[in-house]
Specification:
Radius of gyration: 24 Å
Bound molecules: uridine-5'-diphosphate-glucuronic acid
Number of helices: 19
Shape: elongated
Number of strands: 15
Distance between the termini: 58 Å
Structural class: alpha/beta
Largest sheet: 7 strands, mixed
């Protein structure tokens, strides 16, 4: 078993650290935030993620994982140091690499043994070459340090499962030593490993995420056309899905993809291409479709209603997808300001995302409109003039069509996730509008 340090305790770092401990390695997770470190030591996960807390507690009790702000002691004699810090998007679409640079410098100043630095964060192609050079430039002791790429494919909400049962592990290395060490680290997971060079590994991450973003935008484009020609996008998707070359996943049309990955990684790859004088037209199209798609329902509702001024608007779901409290690039963040500007009185429900949303849109008056957070769906729907569904939480899906009819002043529902069958809503007497379907 190996001694592993992990830099950064966000989704990527913390989940990786916990899973390496789970398979038997000795792990130390490093974060600059002292209070976060103390929270993790007490067995509490700083992020909402199924199964994570249990594994944190189990492995902490077994002495296989610890958390610290003292990077020097964590890096000093580690066999491998995994970097899982953020690479946020900058205004021009490029990735901000300053967190990676900080960690690289700390590693260079701390390591006393030969060690492999493994970059898990999503980084522009060629970054790992630069990180390796950067570490060499600042290296204090006479030891061997190499850099490997090992992109992460976990999705929020199923991060632990995705890591322990990954469909593939991608490792990008430039030497036999690095390749063999990474293979050994991953041996206990017993998963398929694809070993390539560093630049290909970096590219695999972007190409995979952007392909999935393209798939969603393609279905949203088809959905919009379905509405115009009188077809039903869910039936179309079902018919397509039987072709094994297309598959049955990621064919759901809706109000666009959000989250911390697809929006960022599509823009980053477009930027990388531009830097090389190439226009990545397919990805650019995916981005354009997604931008328009996010406010599709608002545009539909604006045509139907004379004004939102003074209307009670129920908003069901705020997060970018169910199973997370993450709001990054969520469609709600585009639609809520538009509705408030138009004077809507919003009653928002989200089982876990409301706390984060209040930080952006606090409860109370916002110009002509107002924002109220409620803790159950029925309170949001009571006497509402119109309802928007932005996230397909189980709690939202559980609302029967009859409830909209019974509770709302006017049962007018705009569903961005195609949760209901059109017929059931019609039968219940609900005026129902969704994405890519007749209604
Ligand atoms: C995504 C990828 O799925 C992971 O493989 C990848 O590792 C991760 O990014 C990352 O780069 O870290 P994530 O952003 O957590 O994971 O969430 P997804 O479940 O992929 O959903 C992204 C967005 O697409 C959500 O807003 C979701 O509602 C939307 N989506 C997904 C659709 O609109 N339609 C679909 O059919 C599927």
């Amino acid at each position: 078993m190996y001694k592993i340090a992990v830099a950064g305790t966000g989704y990527v770092g913390l989940v990786a650290g916990v899973c390496f401990a789970e398979v038997g390695h000795q792990v130390t997770c490093v974060d600059i935030d002292e209070s976060k470190v103390n929270v993790m030591k007490s067995g509490v996960s700083p992020i909402y993620e199924t199964g994570l807390e249990e594994l944190m507690q189990k492995n902490y009790a077994a002495g296989r994982i610890d958390y610290t702000t003292d990077y020097k002691s964590a890096y000093r004699d580690a066999d491998a140091i995994f970097i899982g810090v953020g690479t946020p998007e900058q205004p021009d679409g490029s990735a901000n690499l300053s967190y990676i640079a900080t960690v690289a410098r700390q590693i260079a100043e701390s390591v006393e043994n030969d060690c492999l630095v493994v970059v898990k964060s999503t980084v522009p192609v060629g970054t790992n070459d630069k990180v390796e050079q950067f570490i060499q430039d600042f290296l204090v002791n006479d030891v061997k340090v190499e850099v490997a790429s090992n992109p992460e494919f976990l999705a929020q909400g199923s991060a632990v499962h995705d890591t322990l049962h990954a469909e593939r592990i991608i490792i990008g290395t430039e030497s036999k030593w690095a390749e063999e060490l990474l293979m050994k680290l991953y041996e206990p997971f017993n998963l398929p490993i694809v070993s390539v060079n560093r630049r290909s590994a970096e590219m695999i991450k972007y190409a995979s995420n952007d392909f999935l973003a393209l798939k969603i935008s393609y279905m949203n484009d088809i959905a919009n056309l379905c509405e115009l020609v009188g077809a039903d996008v869910q039936d179309v998707a079902k018919g397509m899905s039987y072709d094994a070359r297309i598959g049955n996943k990621f064919l759901n049309a809706g109000i666009g993809y959000g989250g911390s990955c697809f929006p960022k990684d599509t823009k980053a790859l477009e930027y990388i291409a531009k830097q090389h004088g190439y226009e990545l037209r397919t990805v650019k199209a995916a981005i354009d479709v997604n931008t328009d798609q996010k406010t599709m329902l608002y545009k539909k509702a604006s045509k139907r209603l004379i004004t939102f001024n003074g209307l009670k608007v129920a908003v069901l779901g705020l997060t970018f997808k169910p199973g997370t409290d993450d709001l990054r690039e969520a469609a709600s963040l585009e639609n809520v300001p538009l509705l408030l500007e138009q004077g809507a009185d919003i009653y928002a429900y989200d089982p876990v995302g409301a706390d984060n949303f209040t930080k952006v849109h606090p409860e109370g008056q916002h110009g002509k409109g107002s924002m109220t957070y409620v803790s159950d769906v029925e309170e949001a729907l009571k006497d509402a003039n119109v309802c928007f569904i932005f996230t397909e939480w189980g709690e939202v899906k559980a609302v029967t069509p009859g409830k909209y009819k019974e509770l709302m002043r006017t049962p007018l529902v705009y569903d961005g996730r195609n949760i209901y069958r059109i017929e059931e809503m019609q039968e219940a007497g609900v005026e129902y509008r969704s994405i890519g379907r007749k209604a």
